[in-house]
Amino acid sequence: MKDLQQFSSQGIVTGDLDKAAMKIVSKLGNWDITYSGRLTTNEEGYLWNGDIEFKAPDFVKFVNILNFNYNPKSFALGQFSLNSHLVGNSNKFKLTNLNAYVGANNFQGTLWVDKSGPKANIVTDLDITRFEPERFFYNGGQKNSGQTSSGIALKPEATTEEADFLACLLYTSPSPRDRSLS
């Protein structure tokens, strides 16, 4: 979080503490955030309903600042940008009309996140117009004869056969340009 020590924000807010309409442009470290919509309160806290734009210059660094240990094959996947309509609170939210880029990789659709239970639940309905899976995944698993060749991270209890099967699902075409999810 050291990189996020500087914060600035400007905008306009109308309403009161229970219901407000706003347009806010913020900068947190090197992240750019714009929100335009409503903020209301209910028994679960604040409820957001509006459009959000977010940009971070380095996707891997962004994910790791969020306290994940993400070490993909490519150390730099490029800029992360997201435009979407946001409805929900910090525990349960939905992003619709989502258009996100990680470098040149584009994801469009809907994302639902529910962190209210003991384990986070994330569901997506995405169209992926370009996806380079070999850049996103790192495999630290071992085969008896050495490193595995797939691009899937293994769970500690998983077998290399499981990773090979998962890699077959990801790589459906011999051409790197034509790779897609099955």
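Next protein, fold it too.
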Amino acid sequence: MSGAFASSQELATFIGTEIGTDSVPRAQMFLRQASHVIRGFCDQELSKVEADVVTFQDTDRDFLLLPERPVISIGSVVVDAVTLATSAYRVERWGALYTTSGADWSSGATVTYTHGFVEGDPEFDAIRTVTLEMAARAFTGDRGQESEVFGPPAEARGWAPSVFLTGEEKARLASFGPVLVG
């Protein structure tokens, strides 16, 4: 499992309060859970991954659709044990890989590529914001805070605050899912 899209310091800034040293592991847990839920919803890693390898079976299509996006760079494309020159193919950011000759991929291919969003990308910032919203709800929920009415945090009493996506957050993340073809 990849790491969280945001840090406990970013969560503290987001909620406008300091997170005590003893609460940092709890904050980190909610951030990891939120990031995991987002990856599951989007069915994408989303974070930058270098040198990921995917193998395609033969197809009569004129393109291959790389499963993770966005594509940052292609390390290599190998067809029939031969590495293609970079001039022999082109790739689009959202994962479509074409031969420049217009031929199909009848021999399949093994592609090594780097994909995902990096800090500074507006998309990464949007994903981080949703992560912070989700973690903040769980971290600051009524049953997640020490209080005179409820006592210790909910998880200390066996209640687990829920990390979930709202309908509005799902709508904001919908464009980050896999591309449907066919």
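About the second fold: The mean pLDDT is 88.
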